[in-house]
Automatic annotation (TrEMBL):
Belongs to the UPF0174 family. Residues 36-174 form the Ubiquinol-cytochrome c chaperone domain. It comes from Mesorhizobium hawassense. This is Ubiquinol-cytochrome C chaperone.
Length: 180
């Protein structure tokens, strides 16, 4: 037991988590989202893109057992630790962080439900509407929502085609945004 907690296996797991999380962050930071599709390049806009990509990986790993389930849990933990760290970097006080974290967690899990429904039904119109509500809540018309919905649908399919073993070993691949 101590070997697992403190030994080589823990370091290997940390390396896998770090690699997966870096790939998720890189996918969320694709320039086309912000430059061409008008996702706000703000802390909240970046949270939306990171949340979306984290959701896609969580969606892919849902129902998996063993190592894949552990990877999914460690990734979501890492995501929320990163969000908390970002809040602190933005100057949110120790007193304010828990309240903001609760709100952001509620936002994340609320979005997963809307995205799940649309993806399960392969309904790109509903997906575009959900994305527009979340990414551009103050805009009544966001024409690029359909582009993002198509990307999300394609990313979900690409992730579904990836082997669980590959993901659990530290490799997750997203399609390039705007490459359709």
């Amino acid at each position: 037991m101590f070997q697992r907690l403190f030994g080589r296996e823990r370091n290997a797991n940390r390396a896998i988590t770090d690699a997966l999380y870096a790939q998720i962050v890189a996918a969320a930071r694709q320039t086309v989202f912000y430059s061409d599709w008008n996702v706000p390049d703000t802390p909240l806009g970046r949270f939306e893109m990171l949340s979306l990509h984290m959701y896609l990986v969580q969606h892919r790993l849902r129902g998996e057992q063993g190592v894949a389930a552990e990877v999914a849990q460690v990734l979501i933990d890492e995501f929320f630790l990163d969000v908390e760290h970002s809040l602190r970097e933005l100057g949110i006080s120790d007193v304010g962080v828990p309240k903001r974290m609760k709100k952001l967690a509620k936002m994340f899990y609320g979005r997963t439900s809307a995205y799940d429904d649309a993806l399960e039904q392969d309904d790109r119109v509903a997906l575009a509407a959900a994305l527009a509500r979340n990414v551009m809540p103050d805009t009544s018309n966001w024409p690029q929502a359909s582009l993002l919905a198509n990307y999300v649908g394609g990313a979900s399919q690409k992730l579904a085609a990836q082997s669980t073993e590959s993901i659990a070993a530290g490799t997750v691949e997203f399609p390039p945004a705007g490459a359709a």
